[in-house]
Amino acid sequence: MKIKKFNKKEQGISIIGILFLGFIIILILSYFKISIKSVVESPEAQDNLHYVGGNTRNLWNDYLKEPVSYFWNDIFIGIFWESFINNMERIRDGKPTDYELAAPSINK
């Protein structure tokens, strides 16, 4: 029976890889004499950017702002962040954290 090793790590692209890829793309565009500046400053590109920006703003204001604000203020800040700060202060002061207090213990 042969034992397989599963030591393969799934690796994504690093920030260095992204920068290198961007540099390569710029070189390719330069080779074909495509000016990024003229493409971005063209009236068609400006119209597209304004259209996407306006629709993104409408999406945020009409649909996403209220639920995201509720989640951030009432759930994340109210529950997780305050608990995190309280436990960090307990660790700093040498006191047991909520997790240590809630853990089952064996009394002899």
At a glance:
With 108 residues, the protein is mainly alpha-helical.
How is the main sheet built?
none
- The helical percent reads over 70%
Terminal residue distance = 48 Å
Q: What is the typical, i.e. mean, pLDDT?
A: 88
Query: Helical region count?
Result: 4
> Which outline best applies?
flat
Can you characterise this structure?
- The protein is an all-alpha fold.
- It has helices spanning 15-31, 36-41, 43-93, 98-102.
- The longest helix has 51 residues, at 43-93.
- The two termini are 48 Å apart.
Q: What does the secondary structure layout of this molecule look like, with pairings?
A:
Layout: H1 15-31, H2 36-41, H3 43-93, H4 98-102
Notable traits:
108 residues; 4 helices; 73% helix; mainly alpha
